[in-house]
TrEMBL record:
Family: Belongs to the thioredoxin family.
Protein name: Thioredoxin
Stretches assigned to the Thioredoxin domain: 1-101
GO CC annotation: cytosol
PROSITE patterns in alphabetical order: THIOREDOXIN_1 (PS00194), THIOREDOXIN_2 (PS51352)
Species of the source: Streptomyces violarus
GO molecular function: protein-disulfide reductase activity
Length: 101
């Protein structure tokens, strides 16, 4: 995902959207790749999962004041409703998402 399609893909989405603000140089971000793929597969009917590279997309990164990677933000109805920083296991991530799904 990019700054250019953030509005359509996240703000305009019907489902809640989990955005991972990530970077190629971030080892914890790379660790989250398989976790997010599994989450997208298992929860795809109630949650959209996308990644945004902070280095390639500074406009969105700055707009939401993202300073650490990985940062996870959940958007519902175009608004950020939850923010979490740091890598975590899938089980913990699901527990933290329970109140927004």
């Amino acid at each position: 995902m990019t700054d250019a399609d953030f509005e359509a893909e996240v703000i305009g989405a019907e489902l809640p959207v989990l955005v991972e603000f990530t970077a190629d140089w971030c080892p914890p971000c790379r660790q989250m790749g398989p976790v997010l793929k599994a989450l997208a597969f298992e929860e795809g009917d109630r949650l959209k999962v996308v990644q945004l590279d902070v280095d390639s997309n500074p406009e969105t990164t700055n707009a939401y004041k993202v300073l650490s990677m990985p940062t996870f933000m959940v958007f519902r109805d175009g608004e950020p409703v939850k923010s979490m920083v740091g890598a975590r296991a899938k089980r913990r991530l699901l527990e933290e998402l329970a109140d927004v799904l």
